[in-house]
Write a structure and sequence with these properties.
- Keywords: Amino-acid transport, ATP-binding, Cell membrane, Membrane, Nucleotide-binding, Transport.
- It is found in: Cell membrane.
- One of its GO terms (molecular function) is ATP binding.
- Its EC number is 7.4.2.1.
- There is one protein chain.
- The chain is α/β, with parallel strands linked by helices.
- Helix content is 38%, strand content 25%.
- Strand 9 and strand 10 form a beta hairpin.
- The protein is globular, with a radius of gyration of 18 Å.
- The structure holds adenosine-5'-diphosphate and magnesium ion.
- The site of magnesium ion has 3 residues, from helix 1.
Length: 244
């Protein structure tokens, strides 16, 4: 039995006296795709941010690839290098072209030389179907293309796991499909992924498991058929009925 790639144990997070995560336990195996769904304010983003230490948990443990990232002695930068994160807002560097966006973090954070960084940038742009946009500036790209560049930028760092926080929520509807297609491909390639999304078709078709959160706890955790198709809890049914 191999260890889970991501393991969350007894995770609590408070902001002041607002307890946002109230004891989360979660295991994600290598190559598994887990979609996290739930109402706004239920703690989905905070959970992702605790996994890559953008937020410091109040209590509990998080392990990534067997390393306890919540260990106070851990090298946070080394941990973050192993975890790619994609946000709703693409956060590209506007003054750099696409290649520059992909090479800068590789050079700064990983110390790769220019030629190596450029080669890996090109490989990952091809992976998201944007090889021809290498010299374009972000402002000249559609939102969907910008998000695919952001995914390629994260992939160029060679992460072991990818976290996505509502990656298609800021996109015009006609641009959502291209981004989801890239994520499907990543899933097929065996990437371990945690995806906060409201895209139920994606969750049904791509996720190995769906986690429904409400009020800072995991209410249901199971196959998409179970959690979306046959929810056991009233709160899940209520949430899903409002999406349809
Ligand atoms: P979701 O992603 O499910 O919509 P969030 O994790 O963003 O939920 O937020 C859950 C709760 O935590 C909200 O009530 C939000 O106001 C609060 N929260 C999130 N981040 C912070 C922060 N940095 N400081 C204070 N409160 C926060
Ligand atoms: Mg959120």
């Amino acid at each position: 039995m191999t260890r889970p790639e991501i393991e969350v144990r007894g995770l609590h997070k408070s902001f002041g006296d607002n307890e946002v995560l109230r004891g989360i336990d979660l295991e994600i195996g290598q190559g598994e795709v887990v979609c996290v769904i739930g109402p706004s304010g239920s703690g989905k983003s905070t959970l992702l941010r605790c996994v890559n230490l953008l937020e410091e948990p109040t209590e509990g443990q998080v392990f990534v690839g067997g390393t306890e990232v919540t260990d106070p002695d851990v090298d946070i930068d080394a941990v973050r290098r192993r975890i790619g994160m994609v946000f709703q807002q693409f956060n590209l560097f506007p003054h750099l072209d696409v290649t520059g966006n992909l090479t800068l973090p590789q050079r700064r954070v990983l110390g790769r030389d220019r030629a190596t960084a450029a080669r890996i940038a090109a490989e990952n742009l091809a992976r998201v179907g944007l090889a021809e946009k290498a010299d374009a500036y972000p402002a000249s790209l559609s939102g969907g293309q910008q998000q695919r560049v952001a995914i390629a930028r994260a992939l160029a760092m060679g992460p072991e796991v990818m976290l996505f926080d509502e990656p298609t929520s800021a996109l015009d509807p006609e641009l959502v499909g291209d981004v989801l297609a890239v994520m499907r491909r990543l899933a097929r390639e065996g990437m371990t992924m945690m995806v906060v999304t409201h895209e139920m078709t994606f969750a049904r078709e791509v996720a190995d498991r769906v986690v429904f959160m409400d009020g800072g706890v995991v209410v249901e955790d199971g196959s998409p058929e179970r959690v979306i198709g046959d929810p056991q809890h009233e709160r899940t049914r209520h949430f899903l009925s409002r999406l349809l």
